[in-house]
Amino acid sequence: MEIDSDPAPAFANGTHNFATWFQALTGATFRSDLVSIEDLRQRHAGRGIIATADIAADTVLFTIPRHAIICSATSALRDKIPRVFDLDGADGDSDDEGEGSSSSQDSWTLLILVLIYEYIRGSDSPWKPYLDILPSAFDTPMFWSPAELSELQASALGGRVGKEEADEMIRTKILSVIRAHGPVFFPSGSPQLTDTQLLELAHRMGSTIMAYAFDLENDDSEENSGDNGDGEDRDEWVEDREGRTMLGMVPMADMLNADAEFNTHINHGDDALTATTLRDIKAGEEILNYYGPLPNGELLRRYGYVTPKHSRYDVVEVSWDLIEARLKERIESGSGSGVITADDWDNVKQRVRLDEDFEESFVFERVNEDPDATGRLSGDSAFHAIPEELSNQFKTLLKAIKKAGGGELVAQALDDKDLRKQLCLQVVVDALQVRERQYLTSLEDDDRLIGTDRATGRQGMAVWVRRGEKQILREAQAWARGELNELAQKILEGSYGEDGPAAKRRRI
Ligand SMILES: C[S@@+](CC[C@H](N)C(=O)[O-])C[C@H]1O[C@@H](n2cnc3c(N)ncnc32)[C@H](O)[C@@H]1O
Q1: Do residues 32 and 260 touch, judged by C-beta distance below 8 A?
Q2: CA 246 → CA 84, 240, 290, distances in Å?
Q3: Residue 209, ligand 1, Cβ within 6 A
Q4: In angstroms, what is the span from residue 258 Cα to ligand 1's centroid?
Q5: Are strands 288-289 and 264-268 parallel, antiparallel or unpaired?
Q6: What is the pLDDT of residue 113?
Q7: Distance 19 CA to ligand 1 centre (A)
Q8: Domain residues of the chain, as ranges?
Q9: Is the C or the N end of the chain the one with fewer CB within 10 Å?
């Protein structure tokens, strides 16, 4: 965040103006006897809210009246360009007059437009003191240089940055609307922005929304769907068309930092949102919200940071190509197995990809228990199974190979569930080893980098992400080997039968 480089007095001034503005809002409350907004830049956490006294569970720390939220329902922009905001408009299928109307917008793009509009208004915006303390630069990979991105090594995160898609979305849905309504965004006398400047501003607002905005659901709604029960009775805060709940910027609630272990919850009431403590909090502790059971890679992609506690939710993606290639190797190296010609193998691959459930890659993850009702992490976090969809796709592959005359190994695996599981696990272990080698550094190298604090900033975050992935790869291999040992024993006993050596051994 660029605020990292603001001089301390300017930073403190921004905090002060914001806190004063917030507490003067009709309906807002803030327990300044219990909490305060602090400068946490030394630990790269921007602003955060810290307990200044011991706080009991179930205490309301602050209240945000809904009229203080920035969203489509509160910004004056909606009345100025109503057609753009009419998500159900006309027939919902046209982009009339190039103004990005109805069909092309969603809650995300509308909030970008709203934030750009309010930002350009400057002092005329009712949210000026709040907008002033929002970040202007981000640590999300979208803004990393190629050298910084290369530190992610073989992480799938590198392919999910989506800069080009974001540029395209901004050009077609944001710039087009702003240009079609020039006088609304740039009233006479106000300075114009070039397309390049607007593109940059839209990126900044899009990233702010990603890291700060809330889905404006009601507590009595189903998840975040905005449907408060009967499917029809929706209040004006909820625009839920095809699951598109209204997004909004919630001042003060978004001053809370977050972690996998947390102590406070934002409740969404009819007229206001409230921050309520989930357990007793000691003076000096940080008030923490929860963004969900996110792997560090996803935390980095959306919010631009990582934490050790989120490591338990880390995942790693393994491509199907890798699994397929390892099976091919096993078939080709197996004694007595028929070798498949290159043409046959191409047909096999095509056939598997025709399956309606075909998946390009599989996510390997641990089984985790949810945090308890007080926000504490409890219970096990361990790797317990390969994805079921992978096992199913593996069977589809075996069938396709059998059709192509793929030999004994495949035929046996199709006939016997245990042999199939064994082959699948062997192939998975092979694939996980190859997947691990796709990273430039080893798990041990990354452990050392983290243990000695030698990787900091963006590089440090990249190391946390790639190390988390390697840890899953190792844990998955260890688990699969354990399963293979048990399976080998079972298969051995099965092949000798009850009277065979295994049965005799048991009787001794
Ligand atoms: C909703 S804001 C929280 C307030 C923010 N710290 C600020 O100064 O405006 C979310 C952003 O705060 C930062 N953040 C949140 N939780 C954090 C944590 N546990 N450690 C470091 N940074 C954190 C990240 O930059 C994230 O994108």
Answers
A1: no
A2: 15, 7, 20
A3: no
A4: 7
A5: unpaired
A6: 98
A7: 17
A8: 1-66+250-307, 70-213, 214-248, 314-507
A9: C
What is the spatial distance between Cα 312 and Cα 186, in angstroms, rounded to a whole number? 48
Provide block-wise average pLDDT over 10 residues at a time, the chain (508 residues).
75 98 98 98 96 98 98 97 84 45 79 98 97 97 97 97 94 97 93 96 97 81 34 36 75 98 97 98 98 98 98 98 96 70 93 97 97 94 97 97 87 94 98 98 98 94 98 98 95 68 37
Residues near 333 by Cβ (< 8 Å), separated by ≥ 6?
Answer: none
pLDDT of residue 115: 98
**What does the alpha-carbon distance between residue 23 and residue 64 come to, in Å, rounded to a whole number?**
10
d(CA 228, CA 221): 4
User: 1-66+250-307 with 314-507: one CATH topology?
Assistant: no
> pLDDT value at position 190?
85
Please work out whether the CB of residue 307 comes within 6 Å of at least one atom of ligand 1. yes
Give dist(CA 221, CA 217) in Å, integer.
7
User: Which of 43, 70, 303, 458 for a ligand 1 pocket mutation test, highest count of atoms within 8 Å of Cβ?
Assistant: 303
Q: Is 337 in the pocket of ligand 1 (CB under 6 A)?
A: no
User: pLDDT value at position 244?
Assistant: 59
How long a stretch of residues is the chain?
A: 508
Q: What is the pLDDT of residue 232?
A: 33
pLDDT given at position 218: 61
Judge residue 8's burial from the number of C-beta atoms within 10 Å of its C-beta, 0-12 exposed, 13-18 middle, 19 or more buried. exposed
HEC string of 310-347? HHHHCEEEEEHHHHHHHHHHHHHHCCCCCCCCHHHHHH
Selection from 69, 67, 73 nearest residue 87 by Cα: 73
Is any atom of ligand 1 closer than 6 Å to the C-beta of 257?
yes
pTM: 0.90
Q: Which CATH superfamily is domain 314-507 in?
A: Rubisco LSMT, substrate-binding domain (3.90.1420.10)
Q: From CA 139, how far away is CA 207, in angstroms rounded?
A: 10
Is the complex ipTM higher than 0.85?
yes
